[in-house]
TrEMBL record:
Keyword terms of this UniProt record: Coiled coil
Family annotation (InterPro entries): RpnA (IPR010106)
Species lineage: Bacteria, Bacillati, Bacillota, Negativicutes, Veillonellales
PANTHER family per UniProt: PD-(D_E)XK NUCLEASE FAMILY TRANSPOSASE
Protein name (Swiss-Prot/TrEMBL): Rpn family recombination-promoting nuclease/putative transposase
Origin: domain of life: Bacteria
A matching Pfam family: PDDEXK_2
Provenance organism: Megasphaera elsdenii CAG:570
Recorded coiled-coil stretches: 185-219
Amino acid sequence: MSYQIKPWQDLTICDDYMFKLIMRRKRICKRMLEKILQVPIRDITYPEEEKNMKMQYDSKGIRLDVFVADDENTVYDIEMQVRKPEDDGLYRRTRYYQSMIDADLLERGADYDELNSSYVIFICPFEPFDRGRHIYTFKNLCLEDKDLELGDGATKIFLNSVGTADDVTPDVKCFLDYVNGVLSNDDFVQEIDQEIRAVKKLENERVRYMTYAMKMQEERKEGIKEGIKQGREQGQHLANERWGKLMSLLLKEKRYDDAAKAAEDAEFRETLFKEYGI
């Protein structure tokens, strides 16, 4: 499958590149966190680029979309998750992101009891749990006593833009509708939409996007090539292994003529593979 670069003017808040770009606007990112968590936040900061690099690139090539900290030293990872994985990978990914955050803090010299409280927030334009809610908040609780919270400071939140329950404030609902492509008169939604429109008029941002997109396209092509190469090598290895087993059996049974014929006749060779169940 070929990777098509999406035109700059067609990008929306759901596109990873645009989402990251808009969330770099401190006012917008701060307001969104306040609306989701329903708590006031005095200020947020973006970790220095050199410190954030460890967070963005790991051994599996996973990057954090938006990573910020507030004035209470609580850290937030906000992810726009466009596609729903077929298995439970989406839920386990929150665990992986949490481990990345903790590992980065520990590498900077923090003790375990100094680990920041953290939120991993996934914004999903699909239903992640089939319960119809717009918001799902998870903390570690005691199974035997649901009122007993572990208190490890870790929270995971899934926002579902296609939910049906009446479980979020009107402004959060308007934001989730905007994720679905519905523009309302909500002031926060209008602020985001106007910022996106303004960004799209900046030639330098368009050039940066095209450079980024072409790099991603090239990396994907290289990945496909490497996958094909590995597939061929693995296929050849398996073919050699099958052929070796067949020849061993034929020679063991002194079927020398069949061995010679199998070396030249692919159809006869397949017949022998089936005969021996190889």
